[in-house]
């Protein structure tokens, strides 16, 4: 029910520091003021009643509705989605602030179960929409412009038509979603509860992952070995979660007749499988030119004969370890956004001033970072684990981009605001690029420029190469699970096959690294989500190149793209920029930007 695209490209963080300044906390009162607030009770009661009445009004009758009646039906359904989304957003955000809190976990479970029970009565809606004749719908759309605005919603629902089961089975699968939610919570609670011993300290996963970017190589090695030890101790739990989730998906996909495990994600993303395959093939083909070449440079900079996995995100020897305070980070990112377009100022100011960001690292808090849109009549919330590293500044820029995108898209309303994952990373990665370019333009010397370029290349490798490697791992995992239960050793082998291919010959892999698949939340929460990062990075690289080549009028076209939300297909949205994601040259253009940065880094040698 409640799924967040938690960004763990490489979210290595540690405990907070007073040196960072006052870090903001969420104010969730714009959703609800308490778990027993009268407004929450009112909305739950309304939702239960409205779901019943909606079913009585429309079940078995969609084919008889006039254009005005169909519009009323859609508007009522949209309000149900908004109220249920508001409730589950509040419960989920409260839980992610402290996943180890039993009361919060229970509250989230209770809300998920209630909403599942209430909305089971609505399963008929999408099933009946898929049973309607094209001619019938076309006539309704022609008669009513207000209804025609919702045409993309109908198209998205009807994309599942070939894979739809009968009404009773669909209702059963809807109810069964509660079980999947339970496995996700087991994963979250296990991860949040892990303890890692580094010297005399007991650290959580965020603090331990943060040591992988420590200046001291010995600390990075200790953290890697301790992560491997703890993951190995818990590997049976993680293996069981992945086996169960993958098997559940395989059963549902088989009953639906899905040709691949990825197909459901492609349909949800409104992207053709061949486009994703073209992206994947272009990135894999570019491994030697990008990641292998960059890590060979880094190996030389670090003065190593061979790199270990704990050197992958090591700071460069010439890199400063100065912390960036929260106020400094806010100033840098705000400046980059407003320099691009002054309209950005009004959009981003409330995030910093109104309690829309939760930035500090706290016990039990979920790892990584995300921007959650909640519902269109409230506003997004951003979660960070901010520790003052340059990468944390880029993460702020990234998640703020999501927030801006979500605010602009909210004008489309609840049913049309949700952006397909392939376009969901557009504003976030573009925001990173704006911030990076501003910092690069303001760099004072050759060494500073080198560090900035190297860090950006590493971030892009983590966003493109690493995420496509993740995608390949998931494809292999789900394909292998179709043949039977997977042992920890089986999954470990699949992980290592993609890691060695993507990272290249500069690396040696320590014993235990084969278990590092176990902490990636995307694999559990949002199977095959990860390629959206690579899609978004390639798309933004092409967009940014277009912006630099011809900036006149770009800002307005960019705002129109973000404001469209999920109301248009990616081909239609990119057309004003003369870009086409189905063209293989599109991906080559994006990858060449990374390669070009490596070219410049090589000139420093």
Task: Give the strand tally.
Answer: 7
Distance N to C terminus? 51 Å
Query: What is the top-level CATH class of the domain at 31-159?
Result: Mainly Alpha
| Cα-based radius of gyration, to the nearest Å | 24 Å
Helix share bin? 55-70%
CATH superfamily of the domain at 31-159: Oligopeptidase f, N-terminal domain
CATH topology of the domain at 31-159: the name is Butyryl-CoA Dehydrogenase, subunit A, domain 3
- Which term fits the overall shape? globular
Structural class: mainly alpha
- Which spans have pLDDT < 50 for at least 5 consecutive residues? 1-16
What's the tally of helices?
Answer: 27
Q: How would you name the oligomeric state of the polypeptide chains in this document?
A: single chain
Average pLDDT, to the nearest integer?
92
Strand content: under 5%
Major sheet: 3 strands, mixed
| Strand adjacency order, main sheet | 4-6-5
CATH architecture of the domain at 31-159: Up-down Bundle
Describe what you observe in this structure.
There is one protein chain. By secondary structure, the protein is mainly α. The chain has a domain at 31-159: Oligopeptidase f, N-terminal domain (Butyryl-CoA Dehydrogenase, subunit A, domain 3), CATH 1.20.140. It contains 27 helices and 7 strands. Strand 1 (196-198) and strand 2 (201-203) form a beta hairpin. The longest helix has 31 residues, at 67-97.
């Amino acid at each position: 029910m409640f799924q967040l695209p938690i960004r763990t490209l490489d979210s290595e963080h540690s405990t907070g520091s007073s040196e960072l300044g006052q870090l903001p906390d969420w104010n969730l009162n714009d959703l609800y003021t308490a778990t027993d607030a009268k407004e929450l009770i009112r909305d739950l009661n309304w939702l239960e009643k409205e779901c019943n009445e909606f079913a009585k009004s429309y079940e078995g009758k969609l084919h008889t509705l006039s254009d005005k009646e169909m519009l009323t039906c859609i508007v009522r359904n949209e309000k149900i989605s908004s109220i249920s989304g508001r409730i589950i957003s509040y419960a989920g955000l409260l839980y992610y602030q402290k996943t180890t809190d039993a009361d919060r976990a229970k509250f989230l479970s209770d809300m998920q179960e209630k909403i599942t029970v209430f909305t089971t009565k609505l399963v008929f809606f999408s099933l009946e929409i898929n049973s309607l004749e094209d001619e019938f719908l076309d006539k309704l759309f022609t008669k009513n412009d207000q209804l025609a605005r919702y045409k993309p919603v109908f198209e998205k629902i009807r994309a599942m038509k070939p894979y739809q089961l009968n009404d009773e089975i669909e209702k059963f699968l809807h109810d069964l979603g509660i079980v999947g939610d339970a496995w996700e919570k087991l994963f979250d609670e296990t991860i949040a509860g892990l303890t890692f011993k580094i010297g005399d300290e007991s650290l959580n996963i965020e603090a331990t992952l943060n040591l992988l970017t420590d200046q001291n190589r010995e600390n990075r090695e200790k953290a890697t070995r301790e992560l491997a030890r703890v993951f190995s101790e818990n590997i049976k739990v993680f293996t069981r979660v992945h086996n169960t989730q993958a098997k559940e998906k395989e059963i549902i996909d088989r009953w639906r007749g899905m040709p691949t495990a990825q197909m459901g994600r492609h349909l949800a993303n409104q992207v053709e499988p061949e486009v994703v395959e073209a992206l994947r093939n272009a990135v894999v083909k570019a491994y030697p030119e990008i990641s292998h070449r960059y890590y060979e440079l880094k190996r030389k900079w670090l003065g190593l004969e061979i790199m270990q996995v704990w050197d992958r995100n090591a700071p460069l020897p010439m890199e400063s370890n100065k912390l960036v305070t929260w106020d400094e980070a806010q100033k840098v990112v705000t400046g980059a956004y407003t320099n691009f377009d002054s309209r950005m100022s009004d959009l981003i100011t409330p995030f910093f001033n109104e309690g829309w960001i939760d930035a500090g690292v706290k016990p039990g808090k979920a790892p990584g970072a995300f921007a959650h849109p909640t519902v269109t009549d409230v506003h997004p919330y951003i979660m960070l684990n901010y520790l003052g590293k340059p990468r944390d500044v880029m993460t702020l820029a990234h998640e703020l981009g999501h927030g801006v995108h979500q605010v602009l898209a909210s004008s489309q309303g609840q049913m049309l605001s949700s952006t397909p994952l392939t376009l969901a990373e557009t504003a976030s990665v573009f925001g990173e690029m704006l911030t990076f370019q501003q910092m690069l333009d303001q760099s004072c010397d050759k060494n500073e420029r080198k560090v900035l370029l190297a860090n950006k290349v590493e971030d892009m490798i983590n966003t493109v190469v690493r995420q496509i490697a993740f995608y390949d791992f998931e494809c292999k995992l789900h394909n292998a699970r179709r043949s039977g239960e997977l042992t920890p050793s089986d999954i470990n082998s699949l992980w290592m096959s993609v890691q060695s291919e993507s990272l290249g010959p500069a690396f040696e892999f320590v014993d235990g690294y084969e278990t590092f698949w176990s902490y990636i939340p995307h694999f559990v929460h949002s199977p095959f989500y990860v390629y959206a990062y690579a899609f978004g990075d390639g798309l933004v690289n092409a967009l940014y190149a277009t912006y630099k080549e011809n900036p006149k009028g770009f800002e307005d076209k960019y705002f129109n793209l973000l404001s469209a939300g999920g109301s248009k297909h990616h081909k239609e949205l990119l057309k004003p920029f003369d870009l086409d994601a189905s063209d293989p040259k599109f991906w080559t253009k994006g990858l060449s930007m990374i390669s070009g940065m490596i070219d410049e880094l090589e000139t420093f040698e």
